[in-house]
Design brief:
Distance between the termini: 93 Å
Shape: globular
CATH architecture of the largest domain: 3-Layer(aba) Sandwich
Number of domains: 2
CATH superfamily of the largest domain: DD-peptidase/beta-lactamase superfamily
Low-confidence stretches: none
Strand content: 15-25%
Largest sheet: 6 strands, mixed
Strand order of the largest sheet: 3-2-1-6-16-17
């Protein structure tokens, strides 16, 4: 009997120790992770007692502010968005029911005053919590132009400063009004086109011929080609046992590599892809940032990497069995690219081969205006050499002067660019692209424009949007 009681005692003691350990783990070790979990209603509710700091555009325009009211003798705050339709998927929302997203989530520590000595003083009861102001890089005028030109279409626009990596425009269409999240969230969910999705970073698309910028970079780096390398186009090339044709069945005959990029000749770039091989193409893709996703100051996991979407799991081509290198080289073969990634390709060429890390937060200031944090530009990757970048720039300039991208031309400025028209699998319906930068000799803006599900080509519907956005940004910086 005593032995049975002893066993029960030790079993209960062991169970108690396990329970104590688990409680300690969840309440102490893992408490922070639970508290910071995206969408944690209790954390959001506590934040309503805090005057969250504002989120501001590059010109100081308020994108998110906190407004106080008195509820049963207690001052509480609710979030409001004075420019709620300007960049809703980028600014994000902070809501007691629906949690927080985008910058409202990723910058929560600054916005709630939970940082450094400020947090310590609050915990010691020496100061009430005051949120800091987050100053973004978004240029309202250019963002508004992108929104206006995307209206009624599904698509995205990203504009970067290639010198620093600052995100000047991040527009996703359709959009929504951040002020509608509280009270009208269900109606937002019912709207077609996934308005809550930030298409600039959360969704990839086939790049079409914009990918030829990567292919031509790999070709020039290999030493096997120059801008003057000669080709003879018959209109068709055999790739993986299937014929590959030019757009609209065109046949160009003898030409050089510059002419091939200017006129986006599929067969020439398919031949180049076959010569270079998937390994070399994959290496150049990696140098441009494929296969990894920059944080760009947004929550972890919000930015998806670009690359191949093959079921094999090989996001970068590497001569795996079944890879169709010819079609990879022309932007097909299960390639998936975010508009941010395509803007980074343009920025890499504009930056003489260097891609700067894209970012949205320029600085953070406290309620007294003192600077708590300032972004320091950093290199994301070395895409190519200055020599190759200069050669590609000259070729992309020719695309805008006399090729498929003439609609992106700006009076008095040299623009370099590349169009793309990617098939969607539905006859006559494409995803239309334009990527480019200006001025081409000393770029101040690099841009990527995507229009989904259109019967038009990139040079027709995407290039004019790119032109207007670039013009707005350059006018601001003059």
């Amino acid at each position: 009997m005593n032995r049975s009681i002893s066993r029960v005692f030790w079993a209960m003691a062991a169970g108690f120790l396990v329970l104590t350990g688990m409680l300690g783990y969840w309440q102490v070790v893992h408490a922070g992770a639970i508290n910071d979990r995206p969408g944690n209603p209790q954390a959001i509710r506590r934040s309503q007692l805090i005057a969250r700091g504002p989120i501001l555009a590059a010109d100081g325009r308020p994108l998110a502010v906190s407004v106080s009211n008195n509820a049963s003798g207690q001052v509480i705050y609710h979030r409001t968005y004075p420019n709620g339709t300007l960049a809703p998927q980028t600014v994000g929302y902070s809501d007691i029911i629906h949690g927080s997203t985008a910058l409202e989530q990723s910058q929560n520590g600054w916005l709630t005053g939970d940082y450094g000595a400020e947090s310590l003083l609050v915990r010691l009861g020496l100061r009430s919590r005051r949120g800091a102001a987050v100053h973004t890089t978004i240029v309202p005028a250019a963002q508004a132009i992108a929104n206006q030109l995307l209206a009624g279409q599904r698509g995205a626009v990203v504009a970067l400063d290639p010198r620093t990596g600052a995100v000047l425009v991040m527009a996703s269409s359709p959009g929504f009004n951040l002020n509608d999240v509280s009270g009208h969230f269900a109606s937002i969910l019912k709207q077609p086109g996934s308005p809550l999705l930030n298409k600039t970073v959360q969704h990839g698309y086939p790049p079409g011929s914009t990918f030829k910028v990567v292919t031509v970079t790999a070709a020039l780096e290999s030493g096997l080609y120059t801008p003057q390398s000669r080709f003879d186009d018959t209109g068709t090339v055999n790739a993986s046992g299937h014929p590959l044709h030019n757009f609209n069945g065109e046949r160009f005959g003898p030409h050089d590599l510059t002419f091939a990029l200017t006129n986006s000749i599929n067969t020439t770039f398919a031949k180049i892809g076959l010569v270079l091989g998937a390994q070399r193409l994959g290496s150049t893709m990696q140098a441009f940032g494929f296969g990894r996703a920059p944080s760009v100051d947004l929550p972890a996991g919000m930015v998806v990497p670009s690359g191949r979407t093959a079921s094999t799991g090989h996001i970068l081509p590497s001569d795996q069995a079944g890879e169709d290198t010819a079609r990879i080289a022309i932007g097909q073969e299960q390639l998936s690219v975010t508009p941010l990634q395509n803007a980074m390709i343009a920025a890499g060429i504009a930056g003489k081969g260097t891609i700067m890390t894209p970012y949205l937060v320029q600085r953070v200031t406290d309620t007294g205006g003192s600077v708590l944090m300032t972004h320091r530009p950093s290199v994301f990757s070395k895409a190519t050499t200055p020599k190759v970048a200069a050669e590609v720039t000259a070729m992309m300039r020719n695309v805008v002067k006399e090729g498929t991208g003439t609609a992106a031309a700006l009076s008095g400025l040299d623009v370099a660019g590349k169009t793309g028209t990617a098939e969607t699998g539905v006859a006559g319906i494409n995803d239309a692209w334009f990527i480019g930068f200006a001025p081409s000799s000393a770029a101040r803006v690099a841009v990527a424009v995507l229009i989904e599900n259109t019967a038009s080509q990139g040079g027709v519907v995407a290039a004019p949007i790119a032109r207007a956005v670039m013009q707005s940004i350059i006018a601001r910086s003059n």
